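User: Um, any thoughts?
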Amino acid sequence: MATPREIVLKWVEAFNKADSSLIADFYAENAINHQMPNNAITGKKAIKDMFAAEFAAAPNMHCIPIQIIVEGDWAVLEWRDPNGLQGCGFFNIKDNLIQVQRGYWDKLSFQKLYS
């Protein structure tokens, strides 16, 4: 069994490859991904599709971990990207799979950088 920290670091690697199939492998079948500026997405396939659309729209996205804090089944990732966007993600991980992910970032700044 991998630790929540290890899973988040592997998730970051998959994110930085812009590989929606690989990143979807980290999620449980009924996982919830709620990027707080947007509506929540439920289900592994819907999460895969969300990432595929995001990577197509902004292929230069890159996640640089600042810190990862772990408490039980939760890992918190504070991140930035090379363009100055910053945010954090909360990952609930059970049985080596992400059950719930919540992300907090500024949508207006994202749109200015990647539109």
